[in-house]
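User: Hi! Is it possible to get a structure for several chains at once, not just one? Here's what I have:
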Amino acid sequence: DTAVSQTPKYLVTQMGNDKSIKCEQNLGHDTMYWYKQDSKKFLKIMFSYNNKELIINETVPNRFSPKSPDKAHLNLHINSLELGDSAVYFCASSQPEVPYEQYFGPGTRLTVT
Amino acid sequence: AQTVTQSQPEMSVQEAETVTLSCTYDTSESDYYLFWYKQPPSRQMILVIRQEAYKQQNATENRFSVNFQKAAKSFSLKISDSQLGDAAMYFCAIGGIQGAQKLVFGQGTRLTINP
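Assistant: Yes, the chains can be modeled jointly so their relative placement is included. Here is the combined structure:
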């Protein structure tokens, strides 16, 4: 069984569109994260949610809005997509007691044309 | 703020030989964790090895071991008996144990294994 899954794996869209990336974990973890990996492979935290509550927001443009309907899901909605949003987006999860054990999803490659 | 620096954008090694990837970091935390992650072409992030800062003993996982020098804030990864499957991007990362639990990553080192 997949521990952390993301859909879709690939997403190609045009500038100005709105899109969502879904993330689900079946590990029973309370904490979920979104990371962005840019074209130079640099990985950086975007958001972190603990039990549906936002705990980290790393100066991400407000066009990006995470939504956590329950603690097993953390979706990423992006409005008015820009060329610079093209990247690979990774979801991850962990338990608060063991934050260093973060389990990553397979990533979603977003291409904005 | 925590920072991680990997000064080797690319490294290569002959199959079956040993290679060491460098990492330095900075943090104001007294307790933290250090990690090496592997990202093969499939782009899946795979945890290779973890080191707790309060432990003096270097972590080892099969062919992978670290050289952790806390005073120098250095955390290098040694891969012994390199295999073709070790070819990947390798990322060094630091994570706190309190407060925000984000991982801060280095820029990555692309490792090539020559047959």
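The interface with chain B takes residues 31, 33, 35, 40-45, 48, 55-56, 58, 88, 90, 92, 94, 96, 99-102, 104, 106-107, 109 of chain A (CB under 8 Å). Chain A has a mean pLDDT of 91.

User: Great, thank you!
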